[in-house]
Structure prediction request, 168 residues.
Amino acid sequence: MGDTEQKEEFNRLALGKHYGWPYVFADGKINLKQEDPPETTKAELAKTAEKPVLLYTAHAAPMQVVFYTATQFPPEYRNDAFITMHGSWNTKPPVGYEIVRVKFDNGKPVAMEPFLTGFLFQQPEGTYAQFGRPAGLAAWKDGSLLVSDDDAGVVYRISYGSTSAAKR
Prediction:
């Protein structure tokens, strides 16, 4: 559908609800590349499909989500979510290659924002290169986040606090 469609969706899933895909996406957009579903039309399906709670950059390629319930990070991070965005392989310019934070307010997602970037960079001649591709994500028992990079073959540990606190 191009470099800017279909945006990544953050949905609140509920039993018995439908979310439209592959016939409807984003805020009720009709997927013209699909035949009508059996027993209805895409337009009818769009009227009843649940809309995403949040949208993010198309083709960022979410891989893993973790809800942060630990206490190492400041209280404003508690119960937020982190998502690894593996990155696009064919968009211009490339997107993703980051960890995003989904901020919650009173149990409701209100925003998605970059949390850890730097896996993708623009070179002086204008082309892009990647340092790695975030894939897996987990909260470690000490409250830090572990991020696997399936391009570099490493696991990064993200912790919060001073270096003296990290030595304890």
Notes: The two ends are 51 Å apart (CA to CA). Helices lie at 42-48, 163-167. DSSP finds two helices and 13 strands in the chain.
